[in-house]
Specification:
The protein is mainly β. The protein has one helix and eleven strands; from the N terminus they run βαββββββββββ.
Amino acid sequence: MASHPAPPPGPTGSAGRDAFHPDLPGHDDGDADTDGRGLPLHARLHHIRADTLDGDTAQTGGMRRFAAISGSRVGSRRIWMGQTHVAARTASSNHHHGDSETAIHVIKGHPEFVFLDDSSGVAEEVRIRASPGDYIFVPPFVPHREENPSTDEEAVVVIARSTQEAIVVNLPELYVLGDGPDVG
């Protein structure tokens, strides 16, 4: 087993640095794939503070997405992660996430996730009412929407996707997977 020298003394998490190691430079100084010394972004840890989430990502009406982990932000290759906020008494537009698997973890509120199921032979709307701490899995291409029926509380969820960037295909209506126009 190789030994590693101890890091030099000094504060970690210094302002302007996103890596936990105190002497790694920031990654926003030129080359998008490396730091200033040529160290690949994927060869170090990144600390994304809650107040630095990026709202410049794919959006759906009725909700607001914020990116934390993405290919463009930290050099991720196979994952996108962020948050979605839905205001009280609001429903998102119908959408799917292409070939990306999506995992959702409810942080705040009681959002409802709505999709169509035709396993009984008739397409029926299904609502999954979630609570803080619950998880939801959305398979690739499955049309759905998120609703927040609360009269006074915002719903906040953490989202992880199996692609490095957010894939969002907004739809005019829900449909059963395999019946819709966007299924390849």
